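ESCALATION

Customer reports they have been waiting on this structure for their group meeting. Please prioritize. Original submission:
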Amino acid sequence: MILISNQQRDDILRYIDLLCEAYKSKKESDTRSYNVCRRAGILRKQLMKKTSFSASELPEQLKKSRISK
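Update from on-call: job pushed to the front of the queue and completed.
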């Protein structure tokens, strides 16, 4: 399990959208491009399901390890 910041999550979603847009024209003719867009869409849906939380909601153990780094 890894934690990413809310901003990083938003950036990833933006990059996924840009990737699918770039592959849009090739998607109909190329199986590889179609699968890239399909897998990106699945990842996007999974990221959208994840809920945001603030640093204050982290368990104490995670807070301590975060400070020590």
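Sent to customer with the following note: The mean pLDDT is 83.
Escalation resolved.
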